[in-house]
Each structure stands twice: as structure tokens, then as C-alpha cells.
Design a protein that fits this description.
By secondary structure, this protein is mainly α. Helix content is 65%, strand content 3%. The strands form 2 sheets. Strands 2-1-3 form a 3-stranded mixed sheet. The protein has a two-stranded antiparallel ribbon with strand order 4-5.
Length: 739
């Protein structure tokens, strides 16, 4: 989930508004930076001001309670899901894949999440579930429209999760009339019957009309007086003369012509009233084919729910889901989802209520995790949970929301429900609630009980550290890092504590431990603040430029200051580099595998008139190496946009396709580029794409040959330095595929 759920205590201690310029003046030496050993009053006063300044900067928020499914033993849960998938009936598979998706989301495995969603879409048990999972996949792939364009240029359709043909998903009501005609004891009935509607008469074939439904057959051929009448008044049945004419035509041909929407709605209500199933089905399908906008869907969904039109309802649902997240900003759409009762949900989404509201809840949380509509969707999610695993997820997520909204009693009830259902992680929410209410010891005891009763995990010690002090806190944080080195809070807390003790060297070493393998924005921000307090502006500018590369809109210091603004202020105190200086710095940092430093240099170079395509491409390579795929893809798109030649553009397009799993199309782009001009990058791309896409056992020798061809082409030598290592990796990969 994209939304950050901040801890309660860190929100309650808001700092005063920051003026970056005046703050920088403090850090530039107009006040003392660090406490002095002098005992003089003036020195103490200065030290106090500087300590206050450091405290306002070096602030580590408590780790958030994440609204994810986080089992104690991921391997056991995933193995259990795998086993159930092999044994369960087909109609249960989509829900199991949805659960698998939630497990991978707790692990932050984006590719595996999408794979599970795709499997859920493939195994969908109804058209409604297919719509939900297709929309979810499309939502997860927001911002990837450029890939569709590239695939189209390769002659491959990219509309994998495009609109579903709703009409084809529902069988046509082919029921034929089997109504038994009741004899009237020798009374002769007229062949035709006239229906009077206001001042107009519509002459119809009695048997054709009677074949529309059992009620019409009983009325026209049975024991009712109408069976002996040639004129029947239908003026009080909410049907117009125009509508009755269309019904008469349908009774003869079995199909509806070009009927305007308002008349279709009129005929639909009439067909429902007189149980004309074939006529109702025809209206349902005709109306479904007319839904083309959100306004259409809002208006027609109400009719669909009122008249039990499942085809029309599915068509409207598809329009809403295709328009996520924008449609959730429309109160009319939200009201439809919020207030649908059991029968209406059955019409609208069939058996897919849980999956639908799971999607709606996630989208709403990403928009605003504390909003009323998010709360409502999560409440419905709890209501529609069918088993303990669904219930624990829904209850935990709603508990997180109640905690954010300071609805503590309700949050406690929900966390307890999730814990009872087997979600041990929800104890973290209960501990926070005890702490908020002043029961810090209870919080500590809750976590200790969990640690002693199950296999301990890093987050348990991290959470318990919040409720103890000094050595105990330090020990718990060390244990948290030992069990789960990916948790950033322990490193940040230890580093900040060391910095407050004026041990800057140890503080930097501590934060560098995590930045050595995980490029986390909050850790980079903290190190940036360290460098500012040390007046090391050269290092500070490096970190803030790396931050802006990863997230151009990032805001620092609890979201109060744009990172770009701080960069502007810090840059005033850093010497400007010439183009030659930049290239020397880039070669130096690239060679020493200083990836953050390289990102910073490239960021600065992009402000000049350099060949931006090449620089953005280099940036994407660094970001991939730092395991930042989303930022890397953004850089690749910019490289394509700023390419200086056609052959260069084809290479970037090829890498975009390759990195999104379209190896064969990436290979084709490489070959097109080589035809125009032989280049190092084109051969490099071709080698990678061929190694991944070819099933030929002799592929490895071809890959080596391509890499050798790459080495013969001119290059800026940044990439050529990687050639021996890359040759080994790609060759081994190709060899493994051929075995």
C-alpha cells in the first residue's frame, strides 16, 4: 500500500513551522552547533540553542503499524496456500490467490503480488471477479501506458486487462414459451387483441403476446375476462403507446430495434412486472451496451439494482472499476457502493463482494487512510469476510484506521478480533493503545508474552523497544536488527542517539550500515540532517540530490519542507562544478561503486545542456542496482524522451520492454538499433534479451559473441568496465537455460 501510516505519538509532537533559510544560518555557525565543554553561562546558552536545533532536525518517528497481513511464519502460510490451491474446487482458487497477494504485499514483493493478482484474474469464478481483478491489475500498473504504446509498435496487443465483453459473459435467455393454453369451453377467441393506451390502440397478435410470459398467457388465453375481449386497457400499467409498439414488434421478431434509452427503461419495468424474461433480457443487454461514461453508469446502475438486471449492473460496475481511483472522488459512486444491501450486492457483483471491497478499501486508503469512505469500505470488508483469514485481514486494516482516527475503543476491539483470528502482528496495535492510555508496562508485557510464545521476529523486538529505556531499549533494537536487518527504525534510532551524544563518526557509520544495502528515503534524509549539523554541505547536497532522484516531490522534516527547497539553500554553500569536473566525479564514483554519489553527480549534470538521454539511462542503471525499479523505469522513460538519435531511442525502448518482461520485443528493438548503427548499448541489450528469450542450447556462445561485439564499439567506458563481470553473469544465465 502506498500510504504511510504514521505512529500516533510522532504525530502528537508537532514542531513549529520551519524557515529553511533561518535554520541554515544556525547550522552555518551563527550559533554553536554542538554542546561545548565550557561551564560558562554564555556557552551553556549557546549549547542549549544548538542542542534544540539538533533535536528539531534529528527526529526519528516511531515505526508505523502497517495495515498488512503479516503472519509469523511466511513460509508455512505460503506452503499452506499452495497445498490448498492443489486440493480446492476451482471456484475457491481466486480467493486463495487473493490471500497469497496479501501475504506478498506484507513482504513488499511487488512482482510476486502482481503474479498472484494475475492468477486470481485467470481463475476468476464469475464475470464480476474477472472485472475486479482486471481492474486491480490495471490499478497496480498505473503509469505504464508507455509500455502499451511500445508493444503496439511491435505489433503486439497490450490490452491484456482491457474491457471485458460483458454481453458475451452472460448466456442469452433462450427460454421458449411452454405455457399451457387453457380452453374456454368452446368460446371462440379473436386472433388479434388491441391494447388501449390513452387515446391510441395497438393491435397485437394474441398468441405472440401470450407467448411472452405466463401472466400474459393466463390473461389472454385463460379464465380471465380479457381472454374474451378484443380491447384491453393498459393505460394504468406505466407503458406508453410507443413502448407497447416496440413490445409488439419484439413478440413477432424476438429482438429489439433501435430503441431510445428512456423507452428501453420503460419496457424493462413493464417486462419485469409481467415476468417477460426474454424481453427483460433483451432490454438488459441493450441497456448494457449503451453504458459509456460514469454518468451513464451511475444512472443506469440504480435501474439495474431496482429491476434485477445483472448484465446492465456488470456493465456499470466495469465502467466504475476502469475509472479507479478517480471514480471514488465521485460521491454518487461511493454512495452506491456504501449502501448496497445483500440483494443489491448479489446483482452488482455476484459472489465477489469480498474481492470488490478489498480493492475499494485499498484504493481509498491510498487516497486518504482516515476518510469516512475508507472507513465505510473497510467496515463492509469485515462484514463480507467468509473465513478467519479474511476476517483477520479486514479487522486489522480497520483497526489501523480507527487508531489513526483516535477511535481507540473501536480500534482495540478490532485488533483483538484480528488477534483472536490468528494475526499475531495485531498485538502491536494493542500495545500502542495501552501506551497511549498511559499503560506502558502493559505494552511491554504484551510484546514479551508474544516473544516468549512464538518464534520471535524482528518487528516484535522493535515494537517492544518503544516501551523500555536505556540498555534494554538498545538490546531490543540490536536483536531486531539481528532477526530482520531490513527494519530501518533500529538503525535510525541508534544513529540519532549517537549523534545527540556528539559521536558523529559512530552515528554516520550506523546509518551507513543500512544505506549500504537498502536505499530508504527516511534514512537518506536522516543522514542529510547529520551532514547539515556537521556543516558538511558537500555530503549533504549529495544525499538530497539522491533523494530527489528517487522521489522528485519528496518533502522533508516531517513533510514541512520540499527537498528541492532545501537543496537550493544548501547548494549556495557548495562549489559549482564544471562539465569536466562532473564527468571526472562520475568516473571516480562509478568506479568506486559509490552509487549514491553517482546519482547525485548525474542529477547535477542533468541541469546543464549535457546529452540528457545518456545521463538518464546511466541513472536508470544505478537505480536498478540499488533495487529501485519504479524510479529506474521513470529514468528510462526520460532517457527515451531525451534520446538524441533514433538508434539511441530504440535501445532505451528495448530496455523498457526487457525490464517489463517483454524480452522478445526488447530483442527486436536491439536488432533495429544495430541496423541503424552498431553501438555498445545495442549489442549489450541484444545479449541480455537473447539470453532470456532463447530456448536454443547454443545460445550461450551467441551471447558471448554479442558481448565481444559490444566491446568493439565506442562507448563512454563507464559500462565497458562492467564487461568482464557481465559476460560471466549473462553467459552463466544462458547456460542454465540451455540445461
Amino acid at each position: 500500500m502506498r500510504t504511510f501510516f504514521p505512529s500516533e505519538s510522532c504525530k502528537e509532537s508537532q514542531l513549529n513551522a520551519l524557515n529553511p533559510q533561518s535554520w541554515l544560518q544556525v547550522e552555518r555557525g551563527k550559533l554553536s552547533k554542538l554542546p561545548s565543554n565550557s561551564n560558562s553561562n554564555s556557552s551553556s546558552s549557546s549549547s542549549f540553542r544548538s542542542y534544540s536545533s539538533i533535536e528539531s532536525l534529528i527526529k526519528v518517528p516511531e515505526p508505523p503499524i502497517l495495515p498488512f497481513y503479516k503472519p509469523v511464519d511466511y513460509v508455512e502460510v505460503l506452503a499452506q496456500i499452495h497445498e490448498e490451491l492443489e486440493l480446492c474446487p476451482p471456484q475457491e482458487q481466486s480467493n486463495l490467490y487473493l490471500l497469497q497477494f496479501q501475504v506478498f504485499r506484507g513482504l513488499g514483493e511487488v512482482k510476486l503480488m502482481r503474479r498472484s493478482l494475475r492468477a486470481a484474474w485467470q481463475k476468476a469464478n464469475s464475470v464480476h471477479e474477472k472485472l475486479v481483478f482486471a481492474a486491480w491489475l490495471k490499478y497496480e500498473k498505473q503509469g505504464e501506458d508507455h509500455i502499451s504504446d511500445l508493444l503496439s509498435s511491435c505489433g503486439k496487443c497490450a490490452q491484456e486487462f482491457g474491457p471485458v465483453d460483458i454481453l458475451a459473459q452472460f448466456p442469452v435467455d433462450g427460454e421458449t414459451s411452454t405455457h399451457e393454453t387453457i380452453s374456454m369451453g368452446g368460446n371462440k377467441m379473436s386472433r388479434n387483441v388491441s391494447f388501449k393506451i390513452e387515446d391510441e390502440k395497438i393491435v397485437c397478435d394474441r398468441q405472440k403476446i401470450s407467448s411472452l410470459s405466463a401472466p400474459f398467457d393466463a390473461m389472454l388465453n385463460g379464465c380471465f375476462s380479457e381472454s374474451l375481449s378484443e380491447d384491453i386497457d393498459l393505460s394504468k400499467n406505466n407503458i406508453s403507446a410507443s413502448g407497447m409498439k416496440e413490445i409488439n414488434e419484439f413478440s413477432k421478431t424476438g429482438s429489439l430495434g433501435e430503441v431510445p434509452p428512456h423507452l428501453l427503461l420503460e419496457i424493462l419495468a413493464f417486462a419485469n412486472k409481467f415476468c417477460c424474461e426474454k424481453l427483460k433480457d433483451a432490454c438488459d443487454r441493450k441497456l448494457a451496451s449503451l453504458v459509456s461514461s460514469r454518468d451513464d453508469a451511475v444512472e443506469l446502475m440504480e435501474y439495474a439494482l431496482e429491476e434485477n438486471c445483472r448484465v446492465l449492473a456488470a456493465s456499470c460496475l466495469q465502467v466504475f472499476l476502469e475509472d479507479l481511483p478517480n471514480c471514488l472522488n465521485d460521491d454518487r459512486v461511493v454512495e452506491l457502493f456504501k449502501h448496497a444491501d445483500r440483494e443489491q450486492r448479489s446483482i452488482m457483483v455476484g459472489p465477489g463482494s469480498f474481492s470488490l471491497y478489498c480493492l475499494l478499501s485499498e484504493v481509498a486508503m491510498n487516497i486518504d487512510p482516515q476518510s469516512d469512505k475508507t472507513a465505510c469500505f473497510l467496515e463492509r470488508l469485515v462484514e463480507f469476510s467468509e473465513n478467519d483469514r479474511q476476517r483477520l485481514l479486514a479487522s486489522h486494516q480497520l483497526g489501523c484506521l480507527r487508531l489513526l482516527r483516535k477511535e481507540y475503543d473501536e480500534a482495540k476491539r478490532l485488533f483483538e478480533e484480528a488477534l483472536t483470528a490468528g494475526h499475531i502482528y495485531s498485538v502491536a496495535g494493542l500495545a500502542r493503545l495501552d501506551y497511549i492510555k498511559g499503560h506502558k508496562v502493559w505494552s511491554y508485557e504484551k510484546l514479551s508474552s508474544v516473544i516468549n510464545s512464538v518464534i520471535p521476529l524482528g518487528w516484535m523486538y522493535q515494537e517492544r523497544s518503544l516501551y523500555c529505556e536505556d540498555d534494554k531499549k538498545w538490546e531490543d533494537l540490536e536483536k531486531a536488527s539481528e532477526l530482520d536487518p531490513t527494519l530501518t527504525y533500529p538503525y535510525m534510532y541508534r544513529a540519532a542517539t549517537l549523534m545527540r551524544k556528539n559521536n558523529s563518526q559512530a552515528a554516520l557509520a550506523e546509518i551507513n550500515r543500512v544505506l549500504g544495502f537498502k536505499l530508504a528515503l527516511d534514512c537518506l534524509e536522516l543522514r542529510f540532517c547529520f551532514y547539515l549539523t556537521l556543516e558538511d554541505y558537500k555530503s549533504a547536497i549529495c544525499d538530497v540530490q539522491a533523494i530527489l532522484t528517487l522521489c522528485p516531490d519528496y518533502r522533508m522534516l516531517e513533510g514541512r519542507v520540499a527537498a528541492s527547497q532545501l537543496r537550493t539553500l544548501v547548494r549556495e554553500h557548495v562549489e559549482n562544478w564544471t562539465t569536466a569536473d562532473c564527468w571526472l566525479q562520475l568516473y571516480d564514483r562509478w568506479s568506486s561503486v559509490d552509487d549514491i554519489g553517482s546519482l547525485s553527480v548525474i542529477y547535477q549534470m542533468l541541469e546543464s545542456d549535457e546529452a540528457k538521454g545518456v545521463l538518464y539511462f546511466r541513472q536508470s542503471l544505478l537505480l536498478l542496482r540499488l533495487n529501485c525499479p519504479e524510479a529506474a523505469m521513470r529514468s528510462l522513460q526520460l532517457a527515451r524522451q531525451h534520446a538524441s538519435s533514433e538508434h539511441e531511442k530504440l535501445v532505451y525502448e528495448g530496455w523498457i520492454l526487457y525490464d517489463t518482461g517483454h524480452c522478445e520485443e526488447g530483442l527486436r528493438k536491439a536488432e533495429e538499433s544495430i541496423k541503424i548503427e552498431r553501438s555498445f548499448e545495442a549489442f549489450f541489450l541484444k545479449a541480455y534479451a537473447l539470453a532470456d528469450s532463447s530456448q536454443d542450447p547454443s545460445c550461450s556462445s551467441t551471447v558471448v559473441s554479442l558481448l565481444e561485439d559490444a566491446l568493439k564499439c565506442r562507448s563512454d567506458r563507464l559500462r565497458k568496465g562492467q564487461w568482464p563481470k557481465t559476460q560471466g553473469i549473462v553467459t552463466c544465465h544462458a547456460f542454465e537455460r540451455s540445461c
